[in-house]
Amino acid sequence: MNWYEDTADSANQVGRRARKRSIWNFLNLLAYTANVIIVLFVGELGAFFGRPTYPRLLEKFPTLMTPKAWLQSTVWPLIFVAQLLWVIAQLVHGDSAWKVTKRVRYYYLGVTLSQIAFTGLWLYQQLFIATFPLVIALFFFMHISHMEDPSPSIMDFWLLQFPMSLNSGWVLVLLVITVNMLIMDNNVAMEYQVIGALVSLLCGMGAFGISFLLAKSLDLVLPIVVAIAGALAIFLELLDPVDKILINFTPRQINWCKWSAFGAFCLLIVGTIIRSIRHVYVQRKEEEDNLKAAQREVDEIVMMEQSTVNPAIQYVPGVTPTPDTTEDVIASLTPEERAFIYGNQEEEENNGDEHTPSGLYRC
Question: Distance between CA 31 and CA 161 in Å, rounded?
């Protein structure tokens, strides 16, 4: 067998191993399918069980932190379309070699089960218990985001970061909505409902800020989702609130929550811009540091070779000579040694253009 036939056979074996599927690939498909059926068709469209849908419950429990009703019907389909691309891709590529699948592992299964549990509890108006699946889902999303590359490729972004960040941002918004619905369902005084709305908004933004700052990669999807689908949508709803809000709350209380939501939106956008600028600066600084480190390695190799030519030269790693010691070293070189080190640059040295190789140190 020829060498190229061996190479082709090895490449085919590697390709077969790379496309080998594990049990997680099929569990991810089943989890996605169940998620679509329960969350979208049952929760959003009210199919099969005749339970009140997401929009109906939002109308029943209008709070100061409830965004526009149409947003609920827009975000979930967008999430499932984005995740469908990942589910198909992870089945095609398999689990053994594709890093996008490896990073998610069983975390996606935990996310989908948490969302299914939340939907069932929410539709049966078990609002207090429904908050726990949302917190668990955010925990799984945090693990997925911390396994992303600091500089993801285009495929990594659209197949992993975009669908997961879109989903996690909306789950955070749902947690804020559910907490305020729970407060209203327990017939808390209106003054405390206002305090609860402001505190939940502050806590939600704080939790997001911590995860956003600690993430290794620059995730622009998550803050945009929280800013637009959360803070901005709440602000727009309070510009023209429903009748129940106008009856239960004073204009001053409504304005407090309205402008707090708008302030949160502005902080999110400004923070995202600052984080983006800092990310670009850090990346460039790392590139410069890597180039300097590579140059130092090259200088060390060259100096080690030069030290073998002239025994009077001793190479000390990491030591950059001063001009005085460099002149002493150059003066101690013979013409042959200078020709070996500097090549045909003897003329430039005679004209005053002395070369100062880094890494030389006089004994």
Answer: 19
